[in-house]
Fold:
Amino acid sequence: MAVAKQATVQKNIDALAQNKVGRRTPIISLLFGAFSAIGIALTIWMAFEYAPLDAIQGEPQRIFYIHVPMAWIGMLAFGVLALAGIAYLFVRDERLDWLARASAEIGVVFLSLGIIGGSLWGKPIWGAWWVWDPKLTACLILWFMFIGYIMLRSYMGRTEESARVGAVVGIIGVIDVPIIYLSVLWWRGQHPQPISSMPLADALTFLVAVISFTLLYCFLMIQVYQLQRLQASAERLRTIVM
Amino acid sequence: MSAIGEFWEQVWAILWKDIRYELRTRQTWLSMGMFALLVLVVFNFTFDLNVANQRAVAPGVLWIAFLFASLLGLGRTMLTEREQLPLDRLLLSPVDRKAIYLAKLLGNLLFIGIIELVAVPVFIVLFNLPLSLFGAFLPVLVLGTVGIATIGTLFAALTASVQARDMLLPILVFPLLVPVVIGAVRATGLLLVPALNEPPWLSLLIAFDVIFVSVATLVFPAVVEE
Structure:
């Protein structure tokens, strides 16, 4: 990395010049931030105060309002990663790659917290920290895919090859996860789900929770996307300066 | 000659080159084979194997041996590609990139297949299973191996430029191969201990193979392009 060829240096200078640094006030980022903060505060109040105490499960049921949205966002993040990857393979715009990397970093955090939250819920309800049921197993495998993706991208650096390879991993992963879910479902069988309808208060709390966490995801995506952009610029600057 | 005919000619040419190379060096086959056999033997010490247990545990042991041996072998072949640069030279020629993938896949299949053909009889002997098992087992063996080889070959090419590729390949590949492992182990288990109302494991394996051979073939050019 110490000595870069003249052509690469020129390419990097051009790329940096196009990257308008020092943007105007990021309205969208502020809006997402504000709404997600309000939303999550509202969710916390609703989850603990507004939603009625569950007759069967008692207090631990409240984890549901946090755990489920986090797990869903984790899965959404992987989907975004894969879509950005597919788009990257067609368009070859590195911004799509920044989007994919940002989604991976955020998704793994959400999914980890979702899985941990699920364990905390599971212990009092099922009596076990972990069961090998289809949803949990698929989430765990997804988590490993996130980690594998991040490790691979980290080792390969910020090259064009790294972006292509990441896109391929995302594509294979997103196709495989439903198949994994199906195979574990066939293997373990689903535990019988009691068909319960949610009281209105619960459903409302849940809706608010999902929306708030999605807004949080969008807010964080903007931040980490900008971080990726800056990291890419920094790496280019290094090739010029050295 | 038609375009498809030419395509398959290219596949065959690359495959034949790889086969001749392996025949000359013989390094990987021998070590993979010994490794697979050793895994089978070591598992014997890890489980308390009375007759009842054996039938339950045997399919898992066999497929773990194949999985680990395959990943080891795939890592090695890609290392040779990297060090002696035949892949780079191949990319210089106007050969369809998809043909390269299919040739690599068929080569790996052949070479994992030969290891398996040696390991399965040993497995039958070590675990006291009926010899007729071998024939019935063949479809499961082929389908499972295709699954492992498809993902393995693609990811071996993917991780070829990474220093930590030996560790990274299993980390990336094991999660993706969960359906193959579940399907192959259950299907093998059914051969040993027939059960009713089992889900269609062979169909799952077939579906997995078809989907991923197609996707991997389409996506491989993006991996090796310059």
Q: What stands out?
A: The radius of gyration of chain A is 21 Å. The interface with chain B takes residues 89, 137, 141, 144-145, 147-148, 151-152, 155-156, 161, 164-165, 167-169, 171-173, 175-176, 179-180, 182-184, 186-187 of chain A (CB under 8 Å).
